[in-house]
Amino acid sequence: MEGEPTLRLRVFDLNCWAIRYLSKRRPERVRLIGDTLRREGFDLVLLQEVWSEQDYSDLKVKLADCYPFSHYFRSGVIGSGLCVFSRFPILDTLLYQYSLNGYPYMLQHGDWFCGKSVGLVIMKISGIIFNPLCFPSLQLHAEYSRDKDAYLPHRLVQAWELAQFIRHTSKAADVVLLGGDLNMHPEDVGIRLLRGWTGLRDAFAEATHFEGCKNGCTLVPDNCFTDKSELLPFPLGIRIDYILYKAISSFTVKCEELKTTTGPAPGMDIPFSDHEAVMATLHIQRQGQPAGATLGTADVALADVVTEARTEVGVGLRAAQQQRYSSGRMAVLALLLLLLQATAALGTLAGLGAEQPFPKLSFCLLAFLALGILILATGLHLFHTMEVKMLHGTEDQMSMALRALQERP
């Protein structure tokens, strides 16, 4: 009812950059994050890139009094890095791992090994069924290069799967809250697709009061842990960490205040992470009639976004098909070389040849090389075959969604 009291929800979101042995001053920063969360007393804490379960366990012990409910999402080879701390009971959880997440042979990037995912946490607060979602990391695949973004098709597939995941899991919820590192700029096609298809609202754009880095940037040059070379085209920094929300049933959600950290933590010489934290104060109130609408933009504008995303996915599909063909051809050539060597060896044993055409050592080394190439090329062929299937499937889904939008009166 209109006269019912407002629920005030304080949310903290941070990409912690806590990679064991690699992240600078990780133990010190994890302790600092725990001390701050304990002191500030948020209602809901969404953390990404907590790659060590020991770090999560330490935080859980430290925060047990003020955040009695928590959950760590496990996936991939080294984990999703996602965890949630809450003052309110967690009713249920679910982890969805994206079907595409980079390439296993890009070891310097490592996204494939961490199993980027979206974690679903269902909570009931004061009679309101919350459906907050937090990322790997939501974390989508990192960009690495703005000019030559080889991972854009994968990130668009992840954004589409995330949007579909939200739409299909939030039907019984009253409020949906999404926080995490999306690795996308606010104007990128992926974020426009996600917001348009789900109706999620951006806390930064909706906030009555904002305090923090200019334009809400969360990756800024002033941060001592940030790679300055990656931010050369963006002197003020970039905004890739978000808190998004929407009301589904008979509730309204408003963002009263949004803050970001601005460098070193109070009284310290280091920040929490290479990302700035995002803190939102949301006001949630029951209204007389259901909110109703599920799409956040006009159908025509949304159709344009879906078309743009489908085009980029199509480009990625053709590139994946070419890589599949190249790896398959390499595997066939390696197999033919092995068969040729086997034939020559059998011929020598059978006395059909005067002598072995190559020295034994060279012959063996060539055989091992051909076998290694065969195994590697076959693995790449299988991987790119799966990539083609996922990209093709997403392209088909986007085409169906586009037809549905165009057929609306």
From TrEMBL:
GO terms assigned for molecular function: metal ion binding; sphingomyelin phosphodiesterase activity
Gene3D superfamilies: Endonuclease/exonuclease/phosphatase
Enzyme Commission number(s) from the entry: 3.1.4.12
Topology in the lipid bilayer: Multi-pass membrane protein
Keyword Transit peptide in annotation: no
Pathway: Lipid metabolism; sphingolipid metabolism; Sphingolipid metabolism
Cofactor: Mg(2+)
InterPro entries per UniProt: Endo/exonu/phosph_ase_sf (IPR036691), Endo/exonuclease/phosphatase (IPR005135), Sph/SMPD2-like (IPR038772)
Membrane spanning residue stretches: 331-354, 360-383
A Pfam match: Exo_endo_phos
Substrates-to-products reaction catalysed: 1-hexadecanoyl-sn-glycero-3-phosphocholine + H2O = 1-hexadecanoyl-sn-glycerol + phosphocholine + H(+); 1-O-hexadecyl-sn-glycero-3-phosphocholine + H2O = 1-O-hexadecyl-sn-glycerol + phosphocholine + H(+); a sphingosylphosphocholine + H2O = a sphingoid base + phosphocholine + H(+); an N-(acyl)-sphingosylphosphocholine + H2O = an N-acyl-sphingoid base + phosphocholine + H(+)
Single biological process term from Gene Ontology: sphingolipid metabolic process
Keyword Magnesium: yes
Gene Ontology CC annotation, any one: membrane
Locations listed in the record: Membrane
Assigned protein family: Belongs to the neutral sphingomyelinase family.
Protein name per the record: Sphingomyelin phosphodiesterase 2
